[in-house]
Design a protein that fits this description.
This protein has helices at residues 7-17, 19-24, 57-75, 147-153, and strands at residues 27-31, 36-40, 47-49, 54-55, 84-91, 101-110, 114-122, 131-138. It is of the alpha+beta class.
Length: 159
Amino acid sequence: MHEEIPYFDRAARFLSMLKHTQVLGMKISEANAEFLTIELPYNISHVGNPTTGVIHGGVLTTLMDTACGTMVINSLPEIELCPTLDLRVDYVRAAEPNKSIFAQAQAYRVSRNVVFTRCTVHQGDVSKPVANCVATFMRIGSHLTPSSMKDVLLGKTGV
């Protein structure tokens, strides 16, 4: 990984391109060469069970897929669109209502064709996970990635 890559800025620009991240209110809270963290503030519209106030599992899955995919963008030396190949989720416990949720993702192996990631969702203490996932992403090559996407992620143009 190149040190000149502004990890936080690149991740934030990637999130700004995705409509679902805007609708859900996701935001980058930390990003570096090793991992990134996305915060999802609690919102009543994310609730799956109105009686308990617990966040819907689909929202958590979307958060994990987005965190892993954003980490992929930061793990490659060039901008490269990489669609999700596989996502496996373990729901460990229900998230506490009225508290933000954080997804901490890392890319633990980058091969010629696939990027391997993992993610832990927590509410402030990564050792007490709400959910975990592993995900793989297919590399399609920088040459097949739209130049407009590259320009946005590199900060050359706005969304």
